[in-house]
Amino acid sequence: MIEWLLSLEPWLLALLAGTFTWSLTALGAALVFLFKGINRNIYNLMLGLSAGIMIAASVWSLILPALALSQERGEIPWLATAIGFAAGAGFLFLFDKIIPHVHFGEKHLREGIKVPLPRSVLLVFSITLHNIPEGLAVGVAFGAINLVADTNAALFAAISIALGIAIQNFPEGAAVSIPLRQEGNSRTKSFMYGQASALVEPVAAVIGAVLVNAVTSFLPYALAFAAGAMVFVVVEELIPQAQEKTMDRAEHVATFGFVLGFMIMMILDVALG
Asked: Do residues 221 and 84 lie in contact, with contact meaning Cβ atoms separated by under 8 Å?
């Protein structure tokens, strides 16, 4: 199995992994056919879980490998990693200002370029912003397999990233489709919008894999770039939303979700990487 996976082109591995992470989003979105609503505490727990997984993936799967690769190539490790990290955060900041979107619970505040699109579409665009760096992270990880000495370790590290992102995509799919249903959309429409929010992941994964193989010297910067983009999403979007409107004095539910998500991703990365 390992030999077969290593025989595949990096972009194809990235496409398969990105499709897998999307499928978990679709599976989570399908919960809208079973449940009418979502408890705010559970929603906050999901957001915290996603944030924890993304932060842990950024550290163990992206930043630390970027530092190691930079040092192996004779570069200043902290400088190369800092440049890539800042570029990733800047990239998401730019997208946040350009792509029209709106967040759950915000009835009137719209961000990005002003366009006459339905609120449901703008909500999906908001989640799509989160999925771009996730797809890039998966693509860069699989694209790096043939660019390092230990291909087996690189493969398992890439698989751990894909698994971690897929795990957090499941509740994220539900966190998109169920609130859309609560806003008056049909179950089918809510499901379609929910799964569509992650369709960008396979595309971003292929782009990430192709780029790092086209310009191999870009790899440490690409790893840090994906980390910077994910951290931006966590701090800008996930954590603030997770701390809103807690019920029954459960103000720490998002924090517990973050801790759990961080532990899951850390264990996956250490066990498989």
From this structure: yes
